[in-house]
Amino acid sequence: MKILVMKFRNIGDVLLTAPLFANLRHHYPDAQIDAAVNAGTETMLTGNPAIDRIHVYDREYIRRLPLPKRAVEEWRFAHTLRMEKYDLVINTTEGDRGAFLARYSGAPLTIGHRPKKNRFLQRVFTLGLPSQGMRHTLETNLDPLRVLGKEIVTKQVAIHWKESDRRNVDTLLHKHGIGSGEFIHFHPVSRWLFKCIDDQIAADIIDYCQEALGRPVVLTAAPVKSELDKIAAIKRLCCSEPIDLSGRLSLKETAALNSLSSLFIGVDTAVMHVAAANDIPVLAFFGPSGAFHWGPWDNTLDESTYLRRSGIQRMGKHTVYALDWECVPCGQDGCEGTKISDCLMKLSTQTIHRLIEEKLS
Question: Which domains does the chain have, with CATH numbers?
Answer without folding.
Answer: 2-147 (3.40.50.2000), 163-360 (3.40.50.2000)
